[in-house]
């Protein structure tokens, strides 16, 4: 089953796994304070890469890149919910990470 992303505003399903800031899978980077949408999605990916490639745990506002990388497999094949979709979203990075972990 394919991992997909749905918008929490419009998609109502109790089986959706929330990947917003109410969970540990949320993006610690905020539009405005940390840059525009493109920048915060890019910063999120770099944050994940810091653990994947360097083993450097970075905790921002209670969010841990190490934790995300160690637990992302539980998202495989699930519907992931965030508020951004269809706009660019950090959940794209979680799906990218799942593909990396599949190799």
UniProtKB/TrEMBL annotation:
Q: Which InterPro entries match?
A: DUF4326
Report the residue ranges that make up the DUF4326 domain in this protein: 11-94
Q: What is the protein name for this chain?
A: DUF4326 domain-containing protein
Origin organism is marine sediment metagenome
């Amino acid at each position: 089953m394919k991992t997909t992303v749905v918008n929490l505003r419009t998609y109502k399903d109790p089986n959706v796994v929330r990947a917003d800031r109410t969970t540990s899978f949320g993006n610690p980077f905020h539009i405005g304070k940390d840059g525009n949408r493109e920048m915060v999605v890019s910063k999120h990916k770099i944050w994940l890469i810091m653990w994947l490639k360097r083993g450097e745990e970075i905790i921002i506002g209670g969010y841990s890149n190490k934790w995300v990388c160690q637990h992302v497999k539980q998202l495989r094949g699930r519907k992931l919910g965030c508020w951004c979709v269809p706009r660019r979203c950090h959940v794209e990075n979680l799906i990218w990470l799942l593909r990396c972990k599949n190799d």
